[in-house]
Give the backbone structure.
Amino acid sequence: MRYAIIPKELALDQAERECRGVGAKNIKPLPAAKQLFCDLDEEQAKKLSAVAGLKLKPVQRVATGRLAPAPNPALPLQLEDIVSSLNLYDTFNELRQAYSPPLIGTGLTVAVCDSGIRETHEALEGKVVYRANFSESESTTDVFGHGTGVAYVIAGEFGQRSGVAPGASLMNLKVINDSGEGTDEMLVEAIDRVCSLVEQANQQGLPTTDPMYPNTINVSVGGEDDGDPDNPMRVACRTAVEKYGLQVIAAAGNQGPKLTTLMCPACEPKVVAVGGIKTWEFTVWEESSRGPTVEGATKPDFVCWAESIELASHKGDSEYEVKSGTSFSTPILVGVDGLLWDLARRVYGQEVRVTYYDWMPYAYAYCVKPEGVQIAKDNSYGYGLPAVGVMVNRLVKTTTPITGMMETMVPMVMVVGMMGMMIKGV
């Protein structure tokens, strides 16, 4: 049986020696993620469990959207059910064009941990700067049909179609196989690789805006929240954030409306968890996973549109489709981060880095919720829908976080159209 070995009080090389001592096979140390994986039989696992300072966890299943089997975990909509879809070009183009040169998220590099990317798609050509396959599939291309859509939402661009931040670069890290299955080991190994790329970029003296310097990890996949802070995915994400300065943004999952259904690693406090709202109605999307986490933490952190999102399709280089799910809410906010960072560098200099971790303490002042929903963070909306217009105004003003945001917030909450609330902020 395959296990994750998390050293609690031992160094990684000591943990590896202990594994070899009991006869473990296929040992795979992941130093950046501070853990290793190996094969153990029942007796070997029992012996290793008795070693002080080590924690063993059986390898866990990871999938897209749902944990339970489904015909298509990405939840595609039938054409007869589609009234209209959210075109991200139309949604964000006015904001992008309000600046010269336009805000396109230049400088952001996103590691997409998913089912691969159809890199030859017309909207994604030239966007991928690095690729690696951690699944048992033969290549990094997207056969299952999930990662291509996620990548497009972040950085796709072709004519009058685009993602949120078409100037961003992508790293294609395949952790879900061609049948839509993966393991926590595959995801942890991918995160370990991203951390190593940060190390390499620093050693080479690359600026954080270099395409080979990853800034954010998009995780639109996950496994069960087992309530264990030593879950391998959570350990890897914490390390990525705390040691390597990465931002990890993950989908809450599509298991609502039941409570305590957030996926892992979205349940991790250091991970920005994104739930979903209906695209044309400012209410929580029914299938968006709700908190609290198994440990009792209030999650998700934010919500964004999850219904009827127009995406690039893995089926052809010029094909598009419409799907729903928090898998696609997540990359929208990743792209928004790219636009905001693009603007922040213009205002404060190229060395500045602004992430959702910086915005979080003031979230109540720039997020919106429907009338009647509590202002405090809750287990359906989190802090709410980030109002990009408010955040933009904050970046270009020198007022305090409270007054600067609240002055813009007051008229904004009176706006009936949700699109206006998010984009214009006035």
The chain has two domains: 2-59, 62-359.
